[in-house]
Amino acid sequence: MAPKKGKKEEDEVAEAAVAPTEPVEEVPKPRKVWSYGINNHVDHLAAETLQAFKGIGDFRQDFAGLCDALDIVGHHALMPEKDLEAPREAGPSAVLTLQSQLLDRASMLVMKAILPTSLHLDTVRLSGCSLDIELLHLLREALTSETTVRSLHVEWNRMELALDDKIRESLNEAHHWTEIDEAEKSLFHSRAQRSLTMFREELESRQGGDVKLAIQRLAEHAVAGHPVTASLWPMDINSWVSTFYDVFHMDVLDCEPVFNILDSDYGDGDGFVPLARLQEVLEGLPTDPPESEERLLPPAQCPEFQDEIGSAFGAFLDRTSPLEVISFRCCNLGRLEVQAISSCLASPSPHLRALNLWGNKICDRGAQALAQALEYNFGLQFLGLGRNFVTHEGLRALCNVLGTRRLEEKAAAEKVIKHLKDQQKEVEKKRKAFGAPPKDANGRERYWPEPHLDTCEEFKDDSGTPFWIWTRNTVIKTLNLEQNPISDADMVERLQPHGTGALILRSTPCTAVLLERQQKAKEQKASMPEDEEGPDETSKGWTLILS
């Protein structure tokens, strides 16, 4: 028989029965780990969810919150940083940086939704993220007039052609293996022809425009002692890569894909390719006629400037873009892409002041396309074309539309003056409508250059002979052409007095000659009496940056 409880014990039991239970701390549901393809089911973002979502203006916090609301697994590189023990005193970072991260479409859709409301962001850097054409379009759509982002860096981003939208839709409906196979073959052929065209132009730029001579040099290096039959000798991938590097310092990423192309549909697929086959294929490619320097139409009005990849990059330069600084460094952009970019540069956003295309494959024809665009662009202050295989011909094309140009013939001057009078009324209208600079969502003024009009003034030399000075685009303050094969020092000296800012020619073949001449000129000037010293002509025009 159990002992009877006392009154004190009964009271304790009763109190325990009615005592309120302590709230159980809710354990947050663990997030799923992002992996490529995990969000493939997401075709679009629910409009009602987007409308109901209220962010706090912090990009990473809002990205995570919207992903949760949409039941999307957020990309780990865009989620809030977990290693911070305490929140930053200065608030969220003004720079969003992603390096070597493979992004998916769902993450870019979420990014597109919240970027306009992330008012702390000033710069977006995406390096080595393998953005395709679709993702690049989504990123462009995210950069609306409401965003505070002013600087965009899409770098180390090689891009390939994609299937045409109509073909993709028809394949999704058909699902027939023969149609899919034909579409893939067609896509491979288009990509291969594009790669071979770019490779041919790169070889031409390295060998003075002569592909046959370039291949002859490669063959003689690869098979020493057999100059007649050297190009017929089959080469494996290792000797192919080493030969192109030894002769032309070409990167493996440039020459290995060409070997693979020639060893597939263009060859036997046995792992060997003779240089004679390369020459045969390159010479059989269609060639475009060189652009006429007399063409006055803006590049945007010319159909040859249409290109799918180039248009995706060029969209960031269009009239509605809020960006002031754009960098497409090392994106494997060649003449085809740059022609499309130049078409947008000819009628660009009024806010763009810096464009960096360093480390691409623009070559001289691409430089000529950019030069034609600069005839209509009077807002760009910096153009970076370093390491782009531009020779003195590309430099001449660019300098001809920048700064001043001396006209000796009256007929040429009258033609220019008539053209300027036709433009003057339009420019005056723009100046009257020119108001205060627009502001972003944070109230900061955007870059807003005044409308520009060229001038053409008549002068006379010491003998009384008239000449005319045509002052053109003087807005550009820096033209960077470092690490390019510019070897004509005489041409550089002829162009120097007519420039408008800093011309960077570091690490070019002409640098040593120009530095030596500058040193001799200084020594000669120092040895002259002060009363015999003439005016310093180098103080006018381009300021040469050689070291």
Q: In short, what is this structure?
A:
The protein is an alpha/beta fold and 547 residues long.
Model description:
With 547 residues, the chain is of the alpha/beta class. The N and C termini lie far apart (104 Å). The protein has 18 helices and 14 strands. The relative contact order is 0.07. The strands form three sheets. A nine-stranded parallel sheet has the order 1-2-3-6-7-8-12-13-14, with no helix packed on it. The chain folds into four domains: 47-145, no CATH class; 165-283, no CATH class; 300-400 and 477-529 and 536-547, Ribonuclease Inhibitor (Leucine-rich repeat, LRR (right-handed beta-alpha superhelix)), CATH 3.80.10; 404-471, no CATH class. Helix 7 (177-206) crosses helix 10.
Salient structural properties:
single chain, 547 residues, alpha/beta, Leucine-rich repeat, LRR (right-handed beta-alpha superhelix), 4 domains, 9-stranded parallel sheet, 3-stranded antiparallel sheet, 18 helices, 14 strands, 10% strand
Q: How many domains make up the 3D coordinates? A: 4
By CATH, the architecture of the largest domain is named Alpha-Beta Horseshoe
The level of helicity is 40-55%
CATH topology of the largest domain: Leucine-rich repeat, LRR (right-handed beta-alpha superhelix)
- The average pLDDT score comes to 85
Strand residue percentage? 5-15%
Give the CATH level 1 class of the largest domain: Alpha Beta
Q: Which shape, going by the Cα principal axes?
A: globular
Number of helices: 18
CATH superfamily of the largest domain: Ribonuclease Inhibitor
Q: Largest beta sheet: what is the strand line-up?
A: 1-2-3-6-7-8-12-13-14
User: What's the β-strand tally?
Assistant: 14
Which regions are unreliable across 5 or more consecutive residues at pLDDT < 50? Answer: 291-301
Gyration radius (Cα, Å) is 31 Å
* Structural class estimated from helices and strands: alpha/beta
Biggest beta-sheet profile:
9 strands, parallel
